[in-house]
Task: structure prediction
Amino acid sequence: MQAFSYVAVTSEGEAIGAKRRGGGGEGGNGGRGGSAFVAGGTTLLDIMKLGVEEPGELVDINHVPLVGVEEAKGGGLRIGANVRNTELAYHPLVVERYRVLSEAILSGASPQLRNMATTGGNLMQRTRCYYYRDVSYPCNMREPGSGCSAMEGYNRIHAVLGTSEKCIATHPSDMCVALAALEAVVIVHGGAEATIGEGAERRIPFEEFYVAYGKDPARWNTLGEDELIVAVEIPALPMAKRGRYLKVRDRASYEFALASVAAMLEVEGGVVKDARVALGGVATMPWRSREAEGALVGKQAGREAFEAAAEAAMSGAVGRKYNAFKIELAKRTIVRGLEMVIGNW
Ligand code: SF4
Result:
């Protein structure tokens, strides 16, 4: 493992200042020899041990007071970036109003990991593509232009949506699938405007926070070099109360999703008035499916509409040698997830 220095900071200003001094890549990466923020460390420390990322300095933000789950202006919730996944999943306001988010978080990782992992860190976790994590293989995410070993390799866990010849890695988060469906906003401080403190924030809609790995595997989010995630906001959304997260995996252990869905429906008189559908385990970013939502609105809430939505969601999917099964699996997951929302399963 590469030697690195360590600094613990207690304020946003110190954190951003340390990152500016240390440099490093855009997108929150420490790059080779730069600075990287660390909170729970549940991804970063693993990939440092593997030699995948080699920051020269870790900036420990655990003592920066980015805490609390609070009512946001205009409804919704503002979640501090350092709120642990466990705290968020069991927070009374989340359990009461955003079941889909609580279920998504609790379906991921292990209790021990959820106790450490933070809200901001969950957004920043890296793919579990085996080839990304093994430095003996070419990987465009690790070394741009070197090639993609998964393309003709063992690609069973890989993506079928948002892929390209550059990269077919799957985004690993469960929580982020629910956040995509909820139209969350990522709030960051720092950047070129030297924005620190309340009222000086950049607000990034969730759909603009990620860059699909297939589009640019080395630049998989839109964070600036010294930007710090300080909070995530989720808007008020009554249908989130009955929303569901369904995850299918190889074993009911701590496995990542082969396919998952965050599903919400607003139904009146048996007709779908509004819908949110986002997918996990099958795409190169947390995947909001507006195609599925469009196929649901105005239809009778039932099997026929749900199957049409599933077809629409997966219409652009591209399967490869070992992962083509995910296309049918994802369709069935979508149908079942929607049935769970209306209580038919
Ligand atoms: Fe690297 Fe992406 Fe290919 Fe995996 S799928 S080897 S992360 S380029």
Remarks:
- The radius of gyration is 20 Å.
- The mean pLDDT is 94.
- The longest helix spans residues 325-341.
- The pocket of iron/sulfur cluster is lined by residues 127, 129, 131-132, 139-141, 148-150, 167-169, 213, 217 (CB under 6 Å).
